[in-house]
Design a protein that fits this description.
Radius of gyration: 22 Å
Mean pLDDT: 97
Bound molecules: adenosine-5'-diphosphate
Low-confidence stretches: none
CATH topology of the largest domain: Rossmann fold
Number of helices: 11
Largest sheet: 7 strands, mixed
Strand content: 15-25%
Number of domains: 2
Structural class: alpha/beta
Shape: elongated
Order of helices and strands: EHEHEHEHEHEHEHEHEHEEHH
Number of strands: 11
Distance between the termini: 58 Å
Helix content: 40-55%
């Protein structure tokens, strides 16, 4: 392989730039040429390219977001769109593609690998950390630390005013971020989509805490489990305790990636380029413990990643 392509696609995640740096510099060091496509799969369809040399990925390791931009591309969901995209790639002499993105983007990569035998290598980039085949996806650690900083600040004011604060974090389908920040932020309750919850029980807990002399509380809720405003209203109505809510929203997606995410992204990006150039395809790179691994996309996309039961139990015990 002499020329490969790279995209960042789907939801952005801090550390995607570092992954790009890893991919580009590893490819160049092996004598390959690398072309970036802007706006994910849309850029392949529109032939929006960016030639990437070693210098073009200089100075981006500190930046959140992605210099290649990202997008969602409806046309690529259809066979005809994918056929056209693969046609464009071949026309441009691109012999393989590194896809940095979440499970949707990886599903698209798997499709062109299986339908057209087009060589692809996936890199897990998602703040949600819900991708199987890796302990961590790029951006999760940064998102957790960003949310945590906000929560730590809110705790100060919650304490001073003796209030309950309900804080909504990202996680439409899972509670990975919520559980992690709940543990790290010392939350009194964590509400996630995977575990049934009773708001009345939470009210009882809040009242019991007041009786013990604990006059402020932080409740973390994953957006997919409940709206923070509804939880706050319910608690106020049933306990009479002064409550506030806050939705952290998109701030969790941005900002300087943590050292952990930068190093993870560099390692995964470089490994993806190396494997692609060595003839591997249809895989996603990841970490298992601190070891780099690579799994077939078929396995990654059909295996559900679940929250760690030990952490769930710990959150429960710590909130007492
Ligand atoms: P993420 O990669 O963050 O999970 P999305 O689910 O929005 O984000 O997927 C990003 C893009 O990947 C989509 O806009 C589409 O172009 C492509 N994609 C997603 N799902 C599929 C699919 N089932 N088949 C083909 N392409 C897909």
């Amino acid at each position: 392989m002499k020329r490969i392509g790279v995209i960042t696609s789907g939801g952005d995640a801090p550390g995607m730039n570092a992954a790009l740096r890893g991919t580009v510099r590893a490819a160049i060091s092996r004598g390959a040429e690398i072309i970036g496509f802007l706006h994910g799969y849309s850029g392949i369809l529109a032939k929006e390219t960016m030639s990437l040399d070693s210098m073009s990925v200089g100075g981006i390791i500190t930046q959140g977001g992605t210099i290649l931009r990202t997008a969602r591309c409806k046309e690529f969901m259809e066979f005809a769109g994918r056929e056209r995209a693969v046609g464009n790639l071949r026309e441009l002499g691109v012999e393989g593609l590194v896809v940095i993105g979440g499970d949707g983007s990886l599903t698209g990569a798997r499709a062109i690998h299986e339908e057209f035998g087009f060589p692809v290598l996936g890199v897990p980039g998602s703040i949600d950390n819900d991708i199987s085949g890796t302990d961590f996806s790029i951006g999760f650690d940064t998102a957790v630390n960003t949310a945590l900083e906000a929560i730590d600040r809110v705790r100060d004011t919650a304490y001073s005013h003796e209030r309950i604060f309900v804080i909504e974090v990202m996680g439409r389908h899972n509670g990975f971020i919520a559980l992690e920040v709940g543990l790290a932020g010392g939350a009194e309750a964590v509400i996630i989509p995977e575990v049934p919850f009773s708001l009345l029980d939470i009210c009882d807990t809040m009242l019991a805490m007041r009786q013990k002399g604990k006059n402020s509380s932080i409740i973390i809720v994953a957006e997919g489990a409940a709206r923070a405003s509804d939880v706050k209203d319910f608690i106020h109505k049933h306990t009479g305790l002064e409550s506030r809510y806050m939705v952290l929203g998109h701030m969790q997606r941005g900002g300087r990636p943590t050292a952990f995410d930068r190093v993870l992204a560099l390692r995964l990006g470089a490994m993806a380029a190396n494997r692609l150039l060595s003839g591997y395809s249809g895989e996603m790179v990841g970490v298992d413990g601190n070891k780099l691994v690579s799994h077939p996309l078929g396995y990654v996309l059909t295996t559900k990643r679940t929250v760690d039961p030990e952490k769930l139990l710990l959150a429960e015990v710590m909130s007492n």
